[in-house]
Amino acid sequence: MTETRLLIRGEQVAGDGEPLEVENPATEETVASVGLPSGEQVDAALAAAREATRIWGRTPAIERAEALHEVAAQLRARADELTELMTREGGKPLVENRDEVSWTAAAFDYYAEMGRNFAGRVIPSIEATQLSLVLKEPMGVVACIVPWNYPLLLLAWKLAPALAAGNAVVAKPSELTPLSTLALAPCFEHLPPGAVNIVAGAGEVGEALVKDERVDCIAFTGSVVVGKAIARRAADRVARINLELGGKDPFIVCADVAERIDVAAKGGAWAAFLNAGQVCTSAERFYVMEPVYDDFVSAFVDYTESLVVGDPLDPGTDIGPLASALQREKVSAQLEAAVAAGAQVVAGGNGSGHERGYFFAPAVVTGAPAETDLLREETFGPVAPIVPVKSLDEAIELANGTRFGLGCNVYTKDLDSIFRCMREIKAGTVWFNDPLTDNDAGPFGGMKQSGVGRELGQEGLEAFQETKHVHIETEIAPKEWWYPYGGDEPQARGA
Ligand code: NAD
Hints:
This protein has helices at 39-56, 61-77, 79-90, 94-115, 151-164, 179-182, 203-211, 224-236, 261-273, 290-305, 325-340, 392-399, 415-424, 457-462, and strands at residues 6-8, 11-13, 19-23, 30-35, 120-123, 130-138, 141-145, 168-172, 196-198, 217-221, 240-244, 249-253, 283-289, 344-350, 360-366, 383-389, 404-405, 407-411, 429-432, 447-448, 451-452, 465-473. The protein folds into two domains: 6-245 and 464-470, Aldehyde Dehydrogenase, Chain A, domain 1 (3-Layer(aba) Sandwich); 249-432, Aldehyde Dehydrogenase, Chain A, domain 2 (3-Layer(aba) Sandwich). The protein is 36% helix and 22% strand. It is an alpha/beta fold and 495 residues long.
């Protein structure tokens, strides 16, 4: 039976509010109906988290580590169930969801160890009789608000470090994909009640969490527009925020990879079409050096046409449907506007021979004018516009020419080109010759409008810690810079 209950104060409870129908985007059928939380239930989740901070925040880090390893073990034990559920509610192919569950578990294992390895540092004190400490403390209650494209992984990148740092959490999955998140409840049974609460719902429930004084930190992954609204609201009460927002990632192919252009094309197609292009770091604009442009486009088109678009539950499927009707409309509209401005679709496009479901055949586009949204604004769908460039200078200028700065991929083995891209590209991650590979130890996040703060790595733990400077003088003695000031020698004053 599909789990539709919320998790509040360690209890699984049916939501008292309106029903939320969860649709399978491959079949357009309803997977399950979730009762949304009433206002009282959201309030109860927040109150439970607030209370749990007292117990969980004081639990020794070594015990928190054991508890997080247990969460990882529970996730692995439920991998089949979670994989299938994510496939049915989100439309991502089975193999990608299986990977997602295993990366989710790995994030809990990683932060279990990080959390017991770091609680601050000792800094040189002002005088020999003193001890100066930098303490890293829990923030309190963290609201984790996540999108639908990687429901469990993007939650884990917040939840695991937040818990490792001693915080309690209220999590809200996307209204499109609440089921796999609600199914996590048994993974947290061994934690103090209220350390993890899960509610469901759309923007109104998210807003209720963001504006509540009991929430110390909002960790959000989603669109730039909602991220800005959250930042504005959080600013009113100076709540901490960590924002992982949209992208328009460039993918640069240099002429020196001419002999392996087939590999660059396959890597590019995978980076553009993984999860039907619904990845925040999807490659959304290709800048290819003129000497290898024709060969790259030809290899890219051949490879794209070989991909299987279909039932995401079928292990032979490469690309499933888009997550919703709205998502497909947005992608189609952006592509149509580019075509109206003169672009050519050289493979794929809307419609993929399926009568039902929000399928979209992966598209390869050439000749898109630089000012179209297809080359400037996030697509979040399987569309790969390819643009020829004359030089690395031109590629870097175009790569940096949007308001986003999440990731960038480059194919080259030339050391000068690697150094230039590494230093000059404004993006939170730059991958060379291995697109989109994440590393739990490597901070992930965006520059410019792609976000504020980082997830993963040491930075991802510190995102959920408050910093306190503690200054201890071991002698009780007057200081010479106190009053009165009227002595012979002027003294430095305390700041
Ligand atoms: P979205 O911004 O519409 O929604 C994200 C979450 O915020 C959902 O849970 C939604 O219910 C909630 N929400 C909506 N309005 C809210 C409000 N006013 N206050 C509080 N919460 C609110 O995004 P989406 O369509 O679910 O996801 C797609 C977007 O996510 C894309 O822009 C993509 O680039 C981005 N994304 C970014 C990353 C990253 O790490 N940078 C990763 C994945 C996805």
